[in-house]
Amino acid sequence: MRMKLYGTGVAMAMSAAILSACGGEVPKLTQVIRPTDNELSCMDLLQETGRNDLEIARLADRDDQVHRRNVHYTVVDGVMFPPAMLTLDLRDQPASEMSALRARNDRLIELADMKGC
After folding, report:
1. What is the four-CA torsion angle of 67, 88, 62, 92, rounded to 10 degrees?
2. What are 6-18's pLDDT values in tens digits?
3. Which site among 2, 37, 64, 75 is 20 to 30 Å from 108 CA-CA?
4. CA distance 58 to 74
5. How far is the C-alpha of 108 from the C-alpha of 69, rounded, in Å?
6. Are 56 and 101 in contact (CB under 8 A)?
């Protein structure tokens, strides 16, 4: 009996560890300063800034979805099934990526000013 309880406790601890690893994506941060920045033309700078703006908009929507899902997990699933709290996305992946893209856009705008675009 005692061995069975020990085995159950170990299984629950392992399950909790596995579920906690599911809590969000790892941010893929954009490199703000790149070695080839000085070679970019005015059109290249404009295109990359536009792509970054689109990605920022997509990430803002994703950030909202993550927030809503976390609220749902906390309010509904957390009350009925507390282990669901282990799946909260606490890595703040969209916000980190948006911050890096904004910094990259600031760098691109700075380069465009220096080139007189």
Report:
1. 90
2. 555 555 555 544 5
3. 64
4. 25
5. 34
6. yes
- Planar angle of CA 30, 35, 31, nearest 5 degrees: 10
Residues 6+ apart with CB under 8 A from 73: 84, 85, 87, 88
The overall average pLDDT reported for the chain is 80
pTM (global) more than 0.70: no
Q: DSSP assignment, residue 31?
A: P
Distance, C-alpha 47 to centroid of its chain: 24
Our CA dihedral for 46, 64, 84, 16, rounded to 10 degrees, sits at: 20
The first and second tokens of residue 60, run together, are: 């803002």
What would the two tokens of residue 88 be? Answer: 């909260």
29, containing H or E segment? none
